[in-house]
Each structure stands twice: as structure tokens, then as C-alpha cells.
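C-alpha cells for Ubiquinol-cytochrome C reductase hinge domain-containing protein. Go.
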Amino acid sequence: MSNQVNFGEGKINENYPSAIKTMLEQGKDPKELLIQYCRPQCKWYDDKYDRCVKAFLSLKNADPEKNCMYPYRDLVTCVEACVQPKIQHALRGNEHGFIFH
């Protein structure tokens, strides 16, 4: 698996901070790009959610969106925990590791 994700004309790899900063300066939201980058790191939660959906789909009249809420929440929490710091560190005013004094 490659650690590269498409963004604009180029690719983003392990040296993504400059790409994120460029996107923010252009007024673009880098979150979707980072979700694609971070989701493979949460494979265990993704697999857990997929197993839950398959189990509920095998039941008659089951709604997996209502019944797999907790595995889905775990997946989203994992992805957000990866995405948020990458955006936070690229924001203007955060050069010293924090925005508010």
C-alpha cells in the first residue's frame, strides 16, 4: 500500500504538511484528502464496522445504520484522531505548537 494520496496536480506523501498548508492558503479544505490518507490506518475499526454491517444485513428486516452505530462511531473517532492534528498543526498562528496563549 502506498502512502500517497492524490491532491490537485501532485501527490501527498509522508511530507504532507506543506501540501496541507498550501491547500489552507488557497482556501481549500484538506479534510477529505486527509480522511483518505488516515482511513487505512484505522483498518481494524473499518473491518469491525464491515463485519457488523454484514451480520445485520443477514438478519431479516434489520437496519445496519441503527444497529452498527458504535462500531461506526469508533471508526470515525479513529479517523478524526488522525486528521485533526494534521490540520491543526498547519493552521496559521500555530507555529509554536499552540494557537491560543
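The first strand starts at residue 5 and ends at 7.
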